[in-house]
UniProtKB/TrEMBL annotation:
Protein name per its UniProtKB record: Metallophos_C domain-containing protein
Every Purple acid phosphatase C-terminal domain range: 91-149
Record organism: Bursaphelenchus xylophilus
Taxonomic lineage from the root: Eukaryota, Metazoa, Ecdysozoa, Nematoda, Chromadorea
InterPro entries per the UniProt record, alphabetical: Metallo-depent_PP-like, PAPs_C
Pfam families: Metallophos_C
Length: 168
């Protein structure tokens, strides 16, 4: 039904507390049994990633981790790092926007090298603004509130009129 309604509601954006993907933490909490079940499901519950793919989700927001991380459009091990990955994205864009949580103090640094699927990581305290300009353009900004408010990440997500990713 979501894909049938794309003319009226062209953007499909989801949110959940725990991220499906993350690259920070010594034990990488996104690779444990609970995260696996969240991503792929169990015998009795469906996983979220197959549903996001089936319904052609454009952007998925999560929190839980007290940092900011933006991924290239990805689905499982597939990711798009083309010269313009955010124009007609071929998979959902996963964003962790948890930098506003926790105590106001410097966050711990990322403890491992970024995944090749990770486009941007920031540990500053901050928040995310998502501006839906029209049916084809969204602007995403991550603002740091440390050392004066300033933008630490920003990007346009664009798609052609009627674009529905091929995975849905």
């Amino acid at each position: 039904k979501a894909n049938q309604n794309r003319k009226a509601h062209p953007w499909l954006i989801t949110y959940q507390h725990r991220p499906i993907y993350c690259s920070n933490r010594p034990t990488n909490r996104c690779r444990n049994k609970e995260s696996w079940a969240l991503r792929y499901g169990t015998k009795t519950e469906p996983g979220l990633e197959p549903l996001y793919n089936k319904h052609s989700v454009d952007i998925n927001f999560s929190g839980h981790h007290h940092d900011y991380e933006r991924y290239y459009p990805r689905s499982g091990r597939y990711y798009s790092k083309s010269p313009a990955p955010y124009f007609n994205p071929l998979a959902p864009i996963y964003i962790i926007s948890g930098a506003g949580g926790g105590a106001y103090e410097p966050h711990t640094a990322f403890d491992r090298s970024p995944s090749k699927m990770s486009a941007k990581r920031v540990t500053d305290n901050g928040y995310t603004i998502l501006s839906v300009h029209n049916k084809t353009h969204i602007y995403l900004r991550q603002l740091s509130v440390e050392n004066g408010e300033h933008e630490v990440d920003g990007l346009w997500i664009r798609k052609a009129v009627g674009w529905v990713p091929p995975y849905g």
